[in-house]
Amino acid sequence: MRRQGKTPAEPLEHSDPHSMAAHVGRHVAWLQARGYGIEGLWTRRADLKEFCEWCAGRDVTRPEDLNRTVLDLYQRYLSRRPKADGEPLSLVTQCKKLMAVAKYCKWLVRERLVAYDPAAELELPRPGPRLPKTVLTAEEAERILAVPDVAMPLGLRDRALLELLYATGIRRSELIRLDLEHVELNRGVLSIRHGKGDKDRFVPIGERAAAWLRSYLAESRPRLVVHSDERAVFLSVRGVRMSNHYLTEVVARVLEESGVGKKGGCHLFRHTAATLMLEGGADLRFIQQLLGHASVETTQVYTRVTLDKLKAVHAATHPGARLRRRQDETGDGSEETGEEAAAKEEKSSSAGPTIFLDEDDKASEAPELLSS
Question: Is 18 labeled as catalytic in the residue annotation?
Fold first, then answer.
């Protein structure tokens, strides 16, 4: 999405000052005054713009034209609207768009622009917990981290930001908003300000990430910065704070050059950090605090990804988990019962192909097949 203007509270283009589009800017400004994050407000503005344009195409232009039928039709439209790649919108995306509309309708009632809330009985989709699409192994993560050429200023910058993403699991927006005063290398922590939900938290950096970050700040950043009053930790090639799109392109390029064959962005390292820590024995509550999740239920999605320990326990405890290999005739010295001997005789005399479970069975059975 290309943003026009400097604030999400700018009014949408409109010809009627009493239209729904004319009130979107006021609504977003009202949300901004109540502490909603700028990134979320840009998304909300885009969602409301889409809603107003859809309504205008059906001659629903003013707040008083809204009713439950209009919202039900819009919900049906979202369930069928394809994305740019042709795939349908996910239930999570549909829910977010409808929540923006519902909040807007509630605000219209508050401002006495409508007599009742048309979204009062709107039933939102109920998306289930989603597993991360891709998670890196520790070996794959190391291959990616080794891609940047640290002899170059931009390469050292890329290595430092990748190490930080991998070590801390912070979000893309949190990395972009990092200022110099938020980094405490002596203590080995980052101060995350105004994270998701406008919440602050501290996260540990780790010795290796701290070492790369210290090298970047000492050697690379002074060569990139243009204005001495720039406080952003990570700078673009123009010497200013990175944008979301710029950082995503940097990470995507490194992933492609690594040859690991997995696609993703900054969130890939967030998923990887949480999954590998959980596999290493970290308590779920500590991972929740590291990632800044409001509820531990959000963090529990990673328990569905860490399959190595589950597979090991399953193989060790489930009686039907392992493939039973055929014992040699000598076996372990135990005698066969009459029924077992009869069953073995019947099996050996029956027609049909011989199925080998492994190479040892094949080697031991081969002389018999040749002699017959």
Answer: no
Digit-coded pLDDT (tens) for 95-145: 999 999 999 999 999 999 999 999 999 998 877 666 667 888 999 999 999
| Least confident segment among 23-32, 96-105, 108-117, 324-333 | 324-333
Is the pTM above the cut of 0.70? no
- Is pLDDT of 162 > 90? yes
Task: Spot the catalytic one: 106, 194, 267, 326.
Answer: 267
In angstroms, the CA 38 to CA 360 distance is 66
Residues 72-101 pLDDT 10s? 999 999 999 998 888 889 888 999 999 999
Assigned domain for 247 exists: yes
What's the one-letter identity of residue 100? Answer: A
Q: Per the residue annotation, which of 196, 214, 241, 326 is the catalytic one?
A: 196
Residues 90 and 181 in one domain: no
Number of neighbours of residue 361 by Cβ within 10 angstroms: 15
CA-to-CA dists, residue 110 to 30, 37, 99, 258, 341, angstroms:
11, 22, 16, 53, 85
Residue 204 and residue 81 in one domain: no
Let me know whether 268 and 182 are in one domain: yes
Nearest to 171 by CA among 278, 236, 268: 268
Catalytic residue among 97, 171, 172, 177: 171
Is residue 73 included in any domain, yes or no?
A: yes
